[in-house]
Design goal:
Blueprint lengths: L2 E3 L12 E3 L3 E4 L6 E4 L2 H8 L4 H11 L3 E4 L4 E5 L4 H15 L10 E6 L4 E6 L5 E3 L7 H6 L15 H13 L39 H9 L3 H5 L10 H17 L7 H10 L6 H9 L4 H7 L1 H8 L3 H17 L1 H4 L3 H10 L5 H8 L9 H35 L5 H20 L2 E3 L5 E3 L4
Antiparallel strand pairs: 1-2, 3-4, 4-6, 5-6, 7-8, 8-9, 10-11
Helix pairs in contact: 2-3, 8-10, 9-12, 10-13, 11-15, 15-17, 16-17, 17-18
Length: about 450
Amino acid sequence: MGSVNVNRSVSDQFYRYKMPKLIAKVEGKGNGIKTVIVNMVEIAKSLNRPPMFPTKYFGCEIGAQTQFDQKNERYIVNGSHDAPKLQDMLDGFIKKFVLCPECNNPETNLLVSQKRQLVNQQCIACGYQGPVDQTHKLIPYIIKNPPDTPPTIGSSVVTTKDKSKSKKEKKKNGDGDKSPTGSNDGDDGFDTNGFTNGSQYDDDDWAVDTSEDAVARRMEILTEGAKVLTLTDDLEKTQQERLELLFQFVKRMKDAGKIEGGDKDVVTEAERLEIKDKGPLVLSEVLFNDNILAQIKQYRILFLRFTHGNMKAQKYLLGGVEQVVKAYKDSLMPKVGHIMKLLYDTDIIDEEVILDWSKKVSKKYVPKEVAMEIHEKVAPFIKWLKEAEEEESSDGDDGEEDEEEVEVVYSDRAAHALQEERRQTTKNAVIQDDGEDEIDIDAI
C-alpha cells in the first residue's frame, strides 16, 4: 500500500511525518455510485485529525454529499472519484488545516471557539497560534463538531488544563503574575479579538518533556525510509530464511500486543526483506486460528497494506487460508465459504482473484484431497459471485441501450430494481453441507 510524506512538497525520504497513500474504492452504479475511502481512519490518525474532517473537506471541494459510518470505519463521498484526484485534494486539506503556516510542521491542533464561531491552529513545534482560513466551507462543520485533540504523538507538552492548574497553584502560593493586559485569561484560550495571543502564555508552557520516557517515545518514531536503509546482511539469506525472520518479527509484535498499531512496521520489515508478496502467508500462520472470521475483521487494515492492488499477495493469502483451514479442519471446513465471502466483502481479496483461484484445484499449499474439499465448500459462493457478475454485465449492456431511449430515467430505474431483486434472491441462497444443517452464506 505504501506511504507518502504528509507534506508532499517535501521530497526528503527521511522526512519524519508519513501517512498511508489514499485508497479509494468506487461502489454502486448509476445514481447510487459512491466512493469509499478505504483507509481514511489510518490517514486521519497520521494527521491528528478526526476522519470526518478530510472526508467532509472532499465533499466541500467537489460539491458532493458525504456519509460517515464510524462503527464500520466507512467514509464515503458520493460520486465516482479516483484515488490520485482525492490524494491531490487531501494535500489542500493538509495545507489549510494541518501544516503550521510558520514552520510547515504538521504537529498542530485545532482550537475551536463555539462562542465566537472561530477556529484557530496551535503548533506544538514552534508555538505559533493563529486562525485558519475562516472562509472555507468546512469551518461551520468543525465548529459544530470540534475535535478532541490530545497531544501530538511523539511530543509531550503542557496542556491548557495543566497550564490553568499551574497558574491556580501559583496564585494560591502568592506567586501568580497578571497577564500583560491586566485581565484574566479566557477559558477557551482566545483573547478579546477571538485569536490567541502568544504573549499571554508563560515561556515554559511550550516546554518539551525531556524525561527518559518521553525521549524514549520520540526515539521510537523512525521513518520508514530509515528502516529500509538499515545496514544488514539479511538480504544475503535465502528466501525461506527471510520468511522465517518475518515470522519471528510478526510473532514478537503479536506477543507484545503491538501488532494492530504496528501494521506500518510489519510492511516495512517485509519490504526490507524483499518478501512483501509472500507476507500474507506469514501473517496467516501467525495471526489466524479457528477464530479466523473475527481475526479477518480485526487485522483487516494490516492485510490491506499487503494485498491492495497486489494480485500476487492476494493469491498467497488464499494459500495461507487453505493451510489454516487444513490445520483446523473440523471447525473451519464447514465455514470456508463464509471465510471466502468475508475476504471479498472486506476488500482484502478481489473478485477476479477468487474466480481465478476457483478454476484450478492446486496441491501447492495443502494435500489435493483437502484442496478439493475446500473448493467444494466454496462452490456455492463462487456460483453466486459468477451470477452477480453476469447480471451486472447484462444490466450494464441494457443501460447503454436505454441511453438511446427517450424514457431514460424510467428505464434506468427499472433496470436497477430488477438487478436488486435478482441479487437479493441469489444472496438469500444457502449452503447445504453434507449431513449438516443449512448455513446462510451471509450469516457471518
